[in-house]
Queue: 2 jobs
Job 1
Amino acid sequence: MSDAVAKKTIPFGRPIIGEEEKRAVAEILDGPILVHGPKAHEFEDAFAAFTGSPYATSLASCTAGLHLAYFYKGLGPGDEVIVPAQTHTATAHAVEYVGAKPVFVDAERETGNIDIDQIEDAITDNTRAMSLVHFLGMPVDMDRINALAAKYELFVVEDCALAIGTYYKGVHAGLLGDLGAYSFYPVKHMTTAEGGMLISKHEEVVARIERQKAFGVDRHVGERKIPGQYDVDMLGFNYRMNEIEAALGIEQLKRMPEFLTKRRENYEALEAGLKQIDEIELLQSTHGDFQSSYYCLSVILKEPLAAKRVDLINSLKEKGIGTSIYYPKPVPHLSYYAQKYGYTVEQFPNAARISYRSIALPVGPHLDTGDMEYIVEEFKNTITEVQ
Ligand SMILES: *Cc1c(COP(=O)(O)O)cnc(C)c1O
């Protein structure tokens, strides 16, 4: 441990909650309506407008949205879903919830997105859907995905947890496949503490999921002439967003244009500085008409530096720089999946390269380009120190 006091404190992620958010939440707490109120609808309309979606429905989490996607499609035992190996465990868990089987496909080396060249080999007669993750905000090549979806008649689910502000050929993520699920968990692009949103270009998808997220009742509270006057004609969950979360979300969404600009500026500054370092490789962050949401900057450590990853992370921490790993293991290497389906650590080498050799650096709107210069400088110093 060095005795030097860190010159800066740069957390990996930190929600930006201002007076507007506090006032909006306080107003809800002062009022009588905590659930089933106007704020959830107001947030849905604002989110739809932001993404250019015709339909949106608020949710308890992104994971709830992914679960509802397969539930909506009626998937179950015997059905298979193509899932990227390099993602959050929620992407695969959502498939397991309905009893279907996730079939993992490795990442492409350049971006960390699913390797589209390997998808056809993973498709069988039982494949019903594909799940795509815009890795760290970089869009998947959705024209190629949709061509496969058309050929094999597959439902296309976009896990958009890190994709607010992700555009592919000018279209916002979530409107490229059949539906998209978003996350408002604290370290994502914006927060409602816990929370999610589902958007779709298909009216019937959102209309049905709106009921499936609320026990399957056939009438919203506002549509009932007499309290308790409703029927239930389908199974459903309790996956709603409450009014406190929605009030927070409305205020956070207003800040999104500024948040996204800051992320891009920070990313570009950090990328420019890190590009000069020989011991590392960077994932591709721009490509033609692909617009990333710049969630974070993932640095891949070349050998022999890769063996020093823990030392590097600790040394950066001493210098006040918070880091993360996206994601710590390829999902099929996690015990639950490895044991259930017999995957080995030799499989999914590109996803493994990211999981086991990368460090994710922060570019969030809580930081500025001065912080990025500090990260670059200290990253270089740290490499010299650990070698
Ligand atoms: C964070 C994350 C999720 C989970 O989001 P919740 O809102 O916490 O359910 C799902 N998928 C990806 C890719 C994520 O990064």
Job 2
Amino acid sequence: MHPIDKVPANIRAIAPYQPGMPITELAREMGQEADDIVKLASNENPLGASPRARAAIERALADVHLYPDGSGYALKTALARRLGVEREQIVLGNGSNDVLELCARLFLGAHTSAVYAQHAFAVYPLATRACAAVGVEVPARAYGHDLEAMAAAIRDDTRLVFIANPNNPTGTLLESAALHAFLQKVPADVAIVLDEAYREYLDEPLRAPSLEWLAEFPNLIVTRTFSKAYGLAGLRVGYALARPEVADLLERLRQPFNVNALALAAAEAALDDEDFLAESKRLNDAGLKQLTAGFRRLGLEYIPSWGNFVCVRVGETARVYQGLLRRGIIVRPVGNYGLPEHLRVSVGTEAQNARLLATLTEVVQA
Ligand SMILES: *Cc1c(COP(=O)(O)O)cnc(C)c1O
């Protein structure tokens, strides 16, 4: 007998998160130059990070021997001002992944369940299982969340519903009216996590008034991140917005210093860089058009996306994925998301997208 023999079945059932292959790994395995490799696998910002964030990191370097401000006072103050919420409504996380897990730990445990959609973000089942709760996966409709079916799937033991809008990896978007109607249907004692990791890429009219909804739905938690449009994925910083009494409980669960000092400084600086954000969105809008036009020329179906990525149906995913890898392009297989015939391609710069399309043409026609 070993202690690991007593580790509960829910932990053993966890399928580890499969990240996009790091550039350094492909360089090592294929003997390629890292500079020649294009990674379109993890929905990272092809513009890099805001110059203001980089400058803030350099300034913050002088103090890396000190613990960060565990309360995140400056970043919370900046967020509160920008978003029009109270500081007491904000919970910072080591990436929004961290706050998603805090939500799971707050509401889930043995003899409870969480509801989420088929093809939804992989962290939801992961966090659910880690808490020994049951995951109720609701079949998708046209690759997106079927809100009516999700409302119907809520059971007596359900404590949490996860919604990603837009969703990753499918890129599907829910209409605000439909989402609002769904929130009205969810019982008051069930928490709803509305994950808005890609919100900044949406045209203004498509953005749900999710923070206004916090007043109407005390069980709502909105999560956002600096990893995508703000270009700070490597630093790990995200946040949850909720009613103060919910935020207070989440705060009790987090590590005392869960967001590092460089991340706090960079996020605060990035928040004010509206030019960078606008340029990220402009580049993404153009890149999505470029990629989807290319897929259409190749006769490949794709799932219309509102994120900074798009799933394209290539059929023989293993062959195409490997063919792209051999030619220095990393994309993301999504078989683990129940999409065995698709590859997810993150939007890159115009040149990166062009190279992906040219290489995909070569591989598909080989
Ligand atoms: C990328 C992503 C996140 C979180 O990323 P973090 O880097 O942990 O902030 C959350 N939700 C969805 C749907 C995502 O795609």
